Amino acid sequence: MISFTRQIALVVLVPLFIELYFLFALLGTLAEVQKERKAESVSIKSLAAINLVLNDVVKCGNLLLFHQQTAEQEMAIEANFLGLIDHTNQLKGLLREEKLRSSKIRFLVAALDKLIDTCQDMEHSDLDNLMIRGPVIGNMAVQINQAGALAIEDETATRARHTNLRRKHETELEDIVRKGSLGTLAIATILGGCLLWRFSFALGRLMDNTKRIESKRKLLPTLRGYDELARLDRSIHQLADELQRRSERERALMDHAALILCSCSEDFLILEVNAFAQSMLGYAPGEMTKLSLQDIVQDDQLDEFNHHMAECRRTGAAAIFESAIVASTNISISCEITAQWSVERQEFQLSIQDIRARRESERVKEELMQVVSQDLRWPLMAIHRNLDRINSKDLGELNERGQRLLKTATYSVSSLMSLVDDLLDIEQLESGISLSYSRARARTLLEQAADLVRGVAEKKQLQITIAGDDAELEVDADRLVRVLVNLLGNAVKFSPEGGCIRCSARLVSQENGTDGGAAEIEFRVADQGPGIPEEKRQTIFEKFKQAGLGGEGEKSGSGLGLAICKAIIEAHDGLIGVESDESGGSTFWFRVALAGRKAPQSGANVFS
Q: How many angstroms separate the CA atoms of 562 and 551, rounded?
């Protein structure tokens, strides 16, 4: 099947070629008509000229026959003779100009020339000559009349023949015009009708298949051929197959998702739900589509549920809230509901997740943290105080082995207490922290942090330098010092003995805020350690993640220090990162705003 473009071209070109054919035939026939008309006109002129010369011959004969030598007769003879010569020349002109092939006219012209020559040789006053040549002239006149009659008969027949041919060609001309117009119209109508039928049929099939895709019905067979609409129909079939495959994959994902996915009308009537509803609530999907969401929400939480759903529809934003759902066995299930209103479909789209396991995990976690903070931390502090008393020699001197064991025990208890503190800090930060903002100077913060780690740094003969801008900023100073202490502590752990740790603070332009272009301050802590691999530079800020170098400092760490730093900086609405060269040396940096932008920290989980 040729393309619709070519079919349209055929509808236009075929009638055009047929019309051109009839046009050429029309022009040829018209030329024949003109030719016959011209020939007929020449015949008419010839007949007129023959009649004139015959009349002139008759007049001249009569005048010569009754000649009386009067001046009037002489003038009449001369005038008729001149007319004869003139009309004879006209007949000759027709023979010459129109290229007449009539032998009879040529014979007549020859007889006329002979008569004219004879008459011109005569003297009008010579009666004897007239009497002598009179019979000759009479015979010539008779021959001329006979030749003229034959010429008239021949030209009359020629005229009749040309007239008949002209009429025949005119009839043919009318037939060509009529047949050409009707034929072209018929062919154009047939071709156009076929094209219109094919186009309407194909377009109707496409529209029907499109509606079937929308209603998820089976498509009609593909159109045959390779025209544009047939190719488009095959593309629609391919699209429908792909949509079907995607729908099946999405349905499989929905059915195997560990949460209820459903849609409901604005009146909370359930329209569609995945298969997990049966596993979670005991309802089959077919049973749930006969219910309303309000039928499965616990009665004492219906008002809160309706409020959240109304706000979701009013604002258009997703609503995330917790509610109790009643299963088919009348068991109440704590769930987290995420609702979104679809303006296009005019329906709610919800995901309902069972959070009983999460609640249990949170309960166990809280109990564990209580054990860590009460049942573990206080005994460790008591052990640490007793070790300090032993180390102060209040209980007597220890031998060298005892001193070594005491030192090991003190270090182990200190490490364990540091880990407990980090765990408690993580718990507090995850539960949401409230920052206490106050005025502080950048250099003072750096000096306070350096003083807290200077004792450990001096044991490794490390030098700590402080430089940069001493700008005033509004932050939670204690928590920012905690961040600097953690960064300096890591620098001390990984720097080689006799090295240098450089601390600095500098003003930079704001990059992550919109508070009128306020400036930020960037703190940097640079060490001379072994460096951090590129793939580890983002994960080291996660809980219990380290750089993976296997050094002594890494082995003794908990993997919580940098996570705590990240939480504190993000609570300040700031940024934290690291720059490192694997050949040696790392620089940890963080930025906070000078004006003290307060992110919403209360109750927020800074790790989410």
A: 17
